[in-house]
Amino acid sequence: MHSSLESSKAYQAVNPITGLTLSEAFMFSTKQEIDATLVESMRAFDIVRAMPSIARAVLLEEIAGQLFAQKGAIVERAALETGLSAENRLSGELDRTCAVLRIFAAAVRSGDVQDVRITTADPSRTPKPRPDVRRMRVGIGPVVVIEASNFPLAFGIIGGDAGSALAAGCPVIAKVHPFHPGTSALIAEAVQIALAKTGIPSGFFAAIHGRGEETISLVQHPLTRGVGFTGSRTVGMVLRRAANDRSRPLDELSLEMGSLNPVFFLPGALARRGSELASGLVEAVLLGGGQFCTKPGNVFVPTGGEGDAFLKALSSAFQRTTSPTLLSPRFAEQYRHSCKALLDLPGVSVLARGEEESLSASSARPLLVVTDPETFMREPLLREEVFGPFSVVVQGPTEVLTELALQVEGELTATIHAAQDEQLSAARLASALAAKVGRLLFDGFSPGVELCDGINHSGPWPSALGRSTVVGTTSYERWLRPLCYQDTPANLLPPELAPDNPLDLCRRVDETCEF
Fold first, then answer.
1. In sequence order, which residues have a C-beta less than 8 Å from that of residue 72 and are 6 or more positions away?
2. CB neighbours of 425 closer than 8 A, spacing ≥ 6?
3. Which of 107, 112, 266, 472 has its CA 20 to 30 A from that of 514?
4. Considering only CA atoms, which of 149, 172, 176, 154 is closest in space to residue 162?
5. How far apart are the first and last CA of the chain?
6. d(Cα 419, Cα 271) in Å, to the nearest integer?
7. At what angle do helices 181-198 and 71-82 cross, to 10 degrees?
8. Residue 6 confidence class, pLDDT cut points 50, 70, 90
9. Residue among 98, 170, 293, 339 flagged as catalytic
10. Cα separation of 457 and 446, whole Å?
11. Neighbouring C-beta atoms of residue 64, cutoff 10 Å
């Protein structure tokens, strides 16, 4: 970390496959640049909040169009900077990002974001006349979005966090992740084109380059009203402390800090389809190189013949896996260090390793370790997330594993695999886990988050901190506050609240939904 924000320094991305530094250099932002960016952001906020909310829908649709038009260049650069497959991963991720932006645009057009509620006046009411009261949701102000390392497009400088903030009417100051600055530069260019084409001030979106010091400066800037972060618990805690040190509290601090996503197997499920479940678990642990926040990090398997047969099938399938490329050589080194520390613990042994390969500068050999419930609870390291193709298997009696469900911390997800005749045991597990997680799955695996109204991607502390889901159609709720107009002349009302509903929003008027 450099010593002062007063002096800019250049940095370059690294190709995680070759380990070579890419040629283009980017400059860390100075304190003066950060100040100027936030001032412009607040000016843009004041202009945009006076516009009809439909203008934000038009902007989101235009951003999606610009991203799609530049898809080839964006995906190609992202592949160079992340080692992720352009065709099998990044192309679909960009399509998903465009879909998310259009979903948010539709929510603005329908009125879901604004959530208009009107109670008309009743002068004849006794003993006191009822006033005309009109309520809607408005944006909280400038939102800092801290780009994720593992989803350069879906949670890059434009994606779920940034798109939901724009939908809410909040300008975005995106902190670029140093792993993929070139990708972010191309995306920022596309957004600025969209801003110009739709007549929205350029300050409504900005990208800032930096490391820890610059990030803290953004979080603590007095004009920042909200912060969105998807990443590790370690960094999330740093951001939380920085937010707590502000003289003016943030209106929203949204932290999604990863999870161990425990998976519980009951004997009947293993007896009926143990081999199938073993293959599914291996795929879930290895998906995306084990770099998904929903990766199964803790796996609970019963003792007995069904559990032993399952572990044998799991080990056999896992040994055939190959070493993925992680997002950077630094992540690969951290992964190896974490694996060694866990294997040094008494009571922990290797269940299976993947094939040993060194195909890239950031390769990570897959590893499964196995332990017993007592060791699992005694050793805190076994209950910490390892970023990469790794998972901890805990084998013990079913009733003991059910008790462990009461001991886990807050998680993004938990999964139960049970047979039809194990519903009583499954119900006990579900009751324990429902208090611990944001999404409870049955007979499936947690990686992958559906884009739909019913989804939730958050969880009790420490997996997340915030009031709303990070993924899905309601994630904009993080960046909104209610605003009420009482007995306001019609010509002074915003169009969302006007009596004739000029924006054709779905509104709740006198307890009845109207268009």
1. none
2. 266, 398, 402, 418
3. 472
4. 172
5. 54
6. 9
7. 150
8. very low
9. 293
10. 11
11. 25
- Could you tell me the two tokens for 32? 């003066």
Q: Could you say which of 40, 256, 411, 496 is catalytic?
A: 256
- Torsion sign over Cα 274, 280, 286, 291: negative
Torsion 271-272-275-279 (CA) sign: negative
What domains can be seen in the chain, in order of their start residue? Answer: 10-14+27-257+467-483+491-497 (3.40.605.10), 263-450 (3.40.309.10)
- Locate tokens 């350029």: which residue? 202
Kindly give the residue spans of alpha helices, DSSP state H, lying in 159-266: 160-167, 181-198, 212-220, 233-244
| Closest residue by Cα to residue 183 from 22, 41, 382, 37 | 22
d(CA 179, CA 472): 26
Tell me the angle at which helices 71-82 and 91-110 cross, rounded to the nearest 10 degrees.
Answer: 120
Q: Which residues contact 129 (CB under 8 A, 6 or more apart)?
A: 121, 122, 123
Q: What is the DSSP letter of 424?
A: H
pTM over 0.90: yes
Question: What is the tens place of the pLDDT at every residue in 72-117?
Answer: 999 999 999 999 999 989 999 999 999 999 999 999 999 999 999 9
Q: Is 256 a catalytic residue?
A: yes
User: Measured between alpha carbons, how far is 300 from 342 in angstroms, rounded to an integer?
Assistant: 17
> Nearest-CA neighbor of 114 among 47, 57, 196, 173?
57
What token pair was written down for 447? 């990686």
Strands 117-119 and 133-139: antiparallel
pLDDT attached to residue 407: 87
E runs forming strands in 58-141: 117-119, 133-139
Strand-pair category, 464-465 with 117-119: unpaired
Please answer whether residues 84 and 146 qualify as being in contact, where contact means their C-beta atoms are separated by less than 8 angstroms. no
Question: Residues 501-506: contacts with CB within 8 Å, 24+ apart?
Answer: 503/52, 503/53, 503/54, 503/111, 505/110, 505/111, 505/114, 505/116, 506/110, 506/111, 506/112
What are 181-214's pLDDT values in tens digits?
A: 999 999 999 999 999 999 999 999 999 999 999 9
SS3 434: helix
Question: What distance in Å separates the CA atoms of residue 229 and residue 464, rounded to the nearest whole number?
Answer: 10
**Residue 44: CB partners within 8 Å, gap ≥ 6?**
171, 200, 201, 202, 203, 204
